[in-house]
UniProtKB/TrEMBL annotation:
Classification via PANTHER family: AMINO ACID IMPORT ATP-BINDING PROTEIN, L-CYSTINE IMPORT ATP-BINDING PROTEIN TCYN
Membrane topology per record: Peripheral membrane protein
Keywords of the record: ATP-binding, Cell membrane, Membrane, Nucleotide-binding, Transport
Name of the featured protein: Amino acid ABC transporter ATP-binding protein
Length: 243
């Protein structure tokens, strides 16, 4: 079980995360929904230490890290155990698909070149891009780039996989291929937190859905509970997707 406790984060005078906490069971798929600006990305970024939280902690495998006083070793522990899939893919443009996947295996996991390459090829096969291994991001469609992004993240075998609106930068016709891949990896007993505006999708794949509002968890429940919730803010938010 992963325990996230009391994350606080301000940018200047603006308090963006107000004591957010969450327990995630092993193998659990938790989706995070909420309006733009409610703090969803910041929440994931703090977990991955891309952003330094002002307070709060995370416990993975009984090791607890306090975000605001994490030392080098603890930061490396977080990077080793969490991996992020970004809305904008965030691939290295000067590296091929294969090299993008190898990068974290080499620099974070310290795996030798041959093994890293082997693993990259295996993962490219998994995401159906074996024939694109030596292509650069600019030579790939958005959907293909994101599938490389997902392969790169799962290559790290993270204890917690974080996905931040993985399909919102894609042309509509490319969304399906990426959602299908996410659905596939969600079924593999991975522990994941996924921020998404694909509500129907979230209802289908999630064990639990968190609704964030103004830097707090406003409502949390199973997909069924979310659908039938009487929470006013949540219903107002869901309604905007039904039009
Ligand atoms: P969401 O992902 O839910 O749309 P974000 O976490 O991106 O929300 O942003 C939450 C709030 O924090 C917003 O008001 C945003 O403008 C602010 N914010 C996010 N990142 C920064 C930053 N690096 N510097 C200043 N303000 C930021
Ligand atoms: Mg965001």
């Amino acid at each position: 079980m992963i325990k996230i406790r009391n994350i606080q984060k301000s940018f200047g005078d603006i308090e963006v995360l107000k004591n957010i906490g969450l327990d995630v069971e092993e193998g659990e798929v938790v989706s995070i929904i909420g309006s733009s600006g409610s703090g969803k990305s910041t929440f994931l970024r703090c977990i991955n230490y891309l952003e330094k939280a002002d307070g709060g902690s995370i416990e993975i495998d009984n090791s607890r890290v306090g975000f605001n006083r994490a030392d080098k070793k603890e930061i490396s522990f977080l990077r080793n155990n969490t991996a992020m899939v970004f809305q904008s893919f965030a691939l290295f443009n000067n590296k091929t698909a294969e090299e993008n996947i190898m990068e974290g295996l080499r620099s974070v996991k310290k795996i030798n070149k041959e093994l890293a390459k082997e693993k990259a090829i295996e993962l490219l096969e998994k995401v159906n891009l074996k024939d694109r291994s030596s292509h650069y991001p600019s030579q790939l469609s958005g959907g293909q780039q994101q599938r490389v992004g997902i392969a790169r993240a799962i290559a790290m075998e993270p204890k917690l996989l974080l996905l931040d609106e993985p399909t919102s930068a894609l042309d509509p016709e490319l969304v399906g291929e990426v959602l299908n891949l996410i659905r596939e990896i969600a079924a593999e007993n991975r522990t994941m937190l996924i921020v998404t505006h694909e509500i129907e999708f979230a209802l289908k794949i999630s064990d639990r859905i968190i609704f964030m509002k103004d830097g707090k968890i406003e409502y949390s429940g199973t997909p069924t509970e979310i659908m039938f919730s009487k929470n006013e803010s949540l219903n107002k938010f869901l309604k905007t997707f039904k039009e």
